[in-house]
Write the structure tokens for this entry.
Amino acid sequence: MGIESSCDETAVAIVSDQKEIFSNIIFTQLEEHKPYGGVVPEIAARSHINHLNALVRQALAQAKVGFDDLSAIAVTSGPGLIGGVMVGLMTAKAIAYARNIPLISVNHLEGHALSVRLTEDVSFPYMLLLISGGHCQLLVVKGVGQYERLGTTIDDAAGEAFDKTAKILGLDYPGGPAIEIAALNGDSMRFKFPRPLKGKPGSNFSFSGLKTAVLRARDKLCDEQDGRLKRQDVCDLAASFQAALTDAILDRVKNSLEYYLEHYGSNKNIFVVAGGVAANSSIKEKLSSLCYQYDFELKAPPMKLCTDNGAMIAWVGIEKYKDELFSDLDIGAVARWPLDPNAPPAIGAGVKA
Ligand code: KG4
Ligand code: ZN
């Protein structure tokens, strides 16, 4: 069983070592956070408490198994919103203790990093772009627990940039899908927004300057039009923002592909993209042609495994189970837990690194 509660999804799944997903139940708290335009940690933690027990029962029922059939329990113990992580961890500890089965503590980011191995035959090493609401990183996945981080965001995550920009434009939360839809009717050339860090060495990301540029452009238009934005303005701002963000991401990815080829290159290079922002067709399309250009095969877990879910946590549990990487019942929840502890800290990255 895998339990996930580090952000705004409460999720429980039951997966076998034969890669069968018996159940993968996800309760999204989207509606509870919508009025605030982003995830409110206190609301998230309380919602996890309210839903987790029922989801555990539901996951067992759908998989047609009981607690006695579980061989181990895997749980996200960080990084994430600490209140929510504690709810999942306490529940997992209780099950492990009561049923006398191993507890396996899982790094949420490792869940995203290894999920592609649950559905596809992908061996180590491979390149990973993790783009979600909370994370934006480029990593070489060398093995279970072995990562080289090539880049991370120095301010906002990519999804966060979509969400904050959507708020600026008066669009709904979550901002990613809302901006993508608005951009379909927009002119991406109308506003010349900055491409942060483009042309600079390395693979770190930065998005806050871009968000501020959108804010300034909106305010300027509002001033010129009696405080009102026209529908076409919103679409053009959304399209220009999306084009700038995509361009900036692509530049960072290009540097990482070159680094990978130099240090890990083989005759079969794999590039995996995961996280909620991977749902964006425009980003995916451009990534696909870049990968083609550098002779990488692009892979993405199915959307249900790309966003936060319990199956990816259960899968890391299975990968760790083989090496008996079990945890003591006194482990604590952690807000910050980098996959590559040797990576230089990115200034301003805070708990997201
Ligand atoms: O992975 P995820 O479901 O949750 C975590 O953050 O862990 O990612 C959610 C993020 C949100 O910021 C949302 O705006 C973004 O993914 N997102 C998108 C799209 N769909 C979701 N961003 C851009 N384009 C999309 N189509
Ligand atoms: Zn996530």
